[in-house]
Give the backbone structure.
Amino acid sequence: MKKFIVRTLTGAAFVAVLIGSMLYGKSSFGALFTVITLLSVNEFCTLTKEYKGTTFSKGLAILGGCCLFIASFLTVHMEYSRPFLLYAPYMAIVAYAFIRQMFDQRSKPLDNFAYFTLSQVYAALPFALLNMLSTGCTLPGETYSYLLPLSIFIFIWSNDTGAFCFGCLLGRHKMFERISPKKTWEGFAGGAFVATVAGYVISIFFPEMNMWEWMGMALVTVAAATLGDLIESSMKREMQIKDSGNMLPGHGGILDRFDSTLLAVPCVIVYLVFIGIL
């Protein structure tokens, strides 16, 4: 019972902070996701160092991830005329991290190059891309809107709720039992159904996209989020750990909470570009 209460309180606080920061404005949005990027990269690097024996500088990886997010944020929200200059510090950090490995005799350069790159592509880039979503459906003269970023999280939470309920009630056929024994195709279908209903409800209150476009975004989010969750599950299974961290009591680590988001964000961007929203 105590674990359930802790999990519930942590989840409620997590959702409140996430929603509140997006609704309040672009400054709070940027500040929160800079911190989340930092924590995500830090957690990923900690795991690879402990379970894969990597020796690259975790500090450089974290600094690089934060610089990537901030450069992306300033580029899209401040309408900076020379974005290359904003990304120059990030490129310098990445170049220095690679050069440093060449002179580190105790390291395995290929492994370190690969995992350092993955820390940026997997744990930092999706949050940087979230800035692109926050420019969609904006009012004239504005560069920020919470609508699309918040919608992704609503679809992910709807999918998780539907998958859990339908999976518990009707789950019979396993999706990928070797990677995630509890996931079933019935749960996946239930999650997709609930998320699609959420897309329909959002279309009633926010006509920036029509019903089919919102529902299509919901389905893309569900498919990408499920794959993102399976990818992280396979990583944890290889490392033989239950959670990626313990920062969020009852919920595990930052990557555990955002594993679905990491793949959903770029996939939704591709979808929105395809239908002409971005």
